[in-house]
Amino acid sequence: MHSVALCGHQFCVECMRQYIEAMLLEGGVPRCPRYQCESKPILRSFTNLLTLKLRKMWEQRIQEDSIPVADRVYCPNRMCSALMSFHGLITCPAVITRGWVQILQQMT
């Protein structure tokens, strides 16, 4: 059994792993699977259940979730499309040129 730290709801390890993986692959932030429970599982308590790729994906979702929807912008570089924030919480991994900066400034 595995327990969600904030609410204490318990689930079998394999069901919890599959649920978290499905939430991440669908683009969501994992929450407790118990009906109407809004508790968010703590990443640290699931590190041994998930692959490195899924752990990094969860970290990215946590960052994304911390940016208000109104402040989210995506890199206009078609080769990147990374989620960014005007407040600098997430930065684009692509090389930003003066032209891209002008495009981003026009979006505000």
From TrEMBL:
Taxonomy, superkingdom: Eukaryota
Record carries keyword Ribonucleoprotein: no
Residue span(s) of domain Zinc finger C3HC4 RING-type: 5-33
Gene3D superfamilies noted in UniProt: Zinc/RING finger domain, C3HC4 (zinc finger)
Family matches, as InterPro entries: E3_UB_ligase_RBR, Znf_C3HC4_RING-type, Znf_RING/FYVE/PHD, Znf_RING_CS
Assigned keywords, A-Z: Metal-binding, Zinc, Zinc-finger
Protein name: Zinc finger C3HC4 RING-type domain-containing protein
